[in-house]
Amino acid sequence: MKTMKVTEKLFMLLFAAALSVLPLSAQIDDKYKDYREVYRDTITADPVSRVLVEKDTLADPHRIVANGFGKNWFLFGTVGAHSFRGDYSNWGPFKGTVSPDWSVGVGKWFMPWLGLKVEFTKSNSRGYVGRFYLPDNVYYYPYGYGDERFTAAGDPYKLMKTGWWDIGASAILNLTRMYYGYEGNNSRRLMNQFMLNVGLGGVHHTGYAQDYGSDNELSFRTELQYSRFFTPAKRVSLDLKVRSLIYQTNFDLQYGQNQMAARKFDANLGVHLGFTIYLGDARSRGWRSGTSTVYRDEFREREIHVVKVKEVPIVAEGPVQSHTMTFFVFYPNNYSGRNDAPQIPDATVNALDYLAGGIFTQKQYTEDERVASRLRSGAPMRGLKAVDLPTERADQDFAVNFIPRGYEMLVDTPISLPLDAASMNAFHEKTGYYYAPIDDGLHVWNYRIDDATLRQQLLSNDNYKETASFGLNSHAGLGTIRQYMDVSANDELVSFADVYAAIKSNQGYIAQFADKETVDRINRILREGVIMYIQVEGLATSQDNYSADVDGRVGKERNNALAENRAQTVISWLTEHEKMQDVRSQIYLMNNQGGIRTVKDPSTRGLNAKLNRCVKVRIHYLMK
């Protein structure tokens, strides 16, 4: 692996500077911690090239990268019927108010949940109209035809019919995507979608025999739409629409400018069935999901950092010496913990606790009866709701102790669990709940993943499971790490399990994977040493870099984001625990240049792939 050679040289000089100011004798008070300020200069005789990393995180499924004006267009058409609702609509039978209509239109989606459409509608409206009186008791029926009729109360009326066409524009709100987020291109998720359309238009009346009012007037439209897609490409949908078109009073109420009945507006309320065709190829119809984009810009600078350095307690005579302790944290494919606590407030899963002692995907089904019914019938579990399970600290004895827990802790025992009825029912009998995979509507993931990688297409169906384990996060895996990873011969190599046991406690579940002597050594370093700085390097593999973009740009951005987020997860974990509070004022250096390692193995479960999905941490410290 690459390391930050320039930065290491710089901080070795800082070591020398710190040694020159640290006292060789000090009195340590059990109650108070003594600190002194040290000035660190980032520039040496040779100018140092620094790297500025700025991050724009767009991994939230509710955020996407919008396409240009020429994309996401669609055509649609509907046929249906409506009931005209005016002042006299209740004077006769309901069927006398019903008329057929049809419409065609064109629209564009600007975002997955926001669009605009223009629609042309052609129809007539039927109903009833009462007498309108002129001076000298002369009366007539605007738009009325046929014989005069009478209501049960004796009011005279006639049948009414007006032809019209309407053209209008409506904003489209995709309520399903607003709630669940964009499902991704070519996805089986959200095959059923609900939309709300609201807009304005204008109506033109046709066939008037007399001038009873304006031929043109405003129209207001609202529409609730249900669309059913039948293929993941979502190129065609069948649409059911319930709509209302509201007009001024010219359909049956207004005579010239003199007489108006009680209602200000008329309305056509209807139901329509139609279809929508989405134009263009897959890239023209979909959106690119937002992923973390990393921009790098090299520059030279001179900075003076003032940091607090803990005084070194005197435990024996002798010079202060510098040391480096190295450990690795290994992650499942497509997982960095960025959507888990402590990075997201109020989350229920702690990423490092999951790696140390998590269960399967750390999710459970919420509807036990429906799960049991489908297990009996052999029906798929798709569509059943699942929620996160809280993680537990691994330095305790787990109540659920009959299954493998933690990632790369046990050798030859992976974290994935069987999804057959017997295994799931046996687990339910002992725990009272059913464990659940992560289902994106197209794939079933058997280990925990980030939201941003949920809809990624892997090269093999087996890659959605964890079928191998080498114990890389346990003390037993250090031999493999030393053999295959770039570890300096002078570094003290410890395991993630050792560090976890030292920071929490060397008890319970984690104790079987940690080495007591190593844990004691780490505790002594944390208690008596001075941590000068910490290097953190996140890594991801090149696997599945393919995307709809020809150059694989999206895949590279996704994997770079995984590498950086893995590193940030470890930094957050280290700085939020009591024994590492003194490190808050020190310097954490995150190096993600070249954070993607080339892995040609198509399997994400092989040793080479697992070794390169990790975070490398080097803790540089001083000890007497």
Task: Please supply descriptive tags for the structure shown above.
Porin, alpha+beta, 2 domains, disordered N terminus, 8-stranded antiparallel β-barrel, 18% helix, 11 helices, 624 residues, 34% strand
Brief rundown of the structure:
This protein is of the alpha+beta class and 624 residues long. Helices cover 18% and strands 34% of the residues.
Description of the structure:
The chain is of the alpha+beta class and 624 residues long. The protein folds into two domains: 5-60 and 292-623, no CATH class; 64-285, Porin, CATH 2.40.160. Helix content is 18%, strand content 34%. It has eleven helices and 28 strands. It has helices at residues 5-21, 175-180, 282-285, 351-357, 368-377, 421-431, 478-484, 496-503, 516-528, 553-575, 607-611; strands at residues 35-41, 49-56, 64-65, 73-85, 98-111, 114-130, 132-134, 138-140, 144-150, 156-174, 192-206, 216-229, 236-248, 265-278, 288-289, 293-300, 304-310, 321-330, 363-365, 386-388, 438-439, 444-445, 492-493, 530-538, 540-541, 587-590, 596-597, 614-623. The strands form nine sheets. An eight-stranded antiparallel beta barrel has the order 4-5-6-10-11-12-13-14. Strand 21 (438-439) and strand 22 (444-445) form a beta hairpin. Helix 8 (496-503) crosses helix 9 (516-528). It is elongated. Residues 1-7, 13-62, 254-261, 292-316 and 546-552 have low confidence and may be disordered.
Q: Any idea what the shape is?
A: elongated
Question: How confident is the prediction overall: mean pLDDT?
Answer: 80
Number of strands: 28
Count of discrete alpha- or pi-helical segments spanning 4 or more residues: 11
Strands ordered across the widest β-sheet: 4-5-6-10-11-12-13-14
Percent in helix? 10-25%
